[in-house]
Amino acid sequence: MTSKRSTCKRGNHALQFSLNRFASLLGCLGLFSLGVFAQSAPSHRAELPPLLPVDKEVALARSAAPEYISSRATIYILKRGGFIKHIEGSNGFTCLVPREGTKGIAPMCFDPEGSQTILLGELRLAELLEHGKSMAEAMKEVDEGYAKGTFKAPRRSGVAYMLSTENHLNDPDSGQTFDYPPHLMIYAPYAQNSDIGASAAQRGSTEVPWILHEGKPYAYIIVVPGAKK
Question: pLDDT below 50 — which residues of the chain?
Answer without folding.
Answer: 1-44, 229
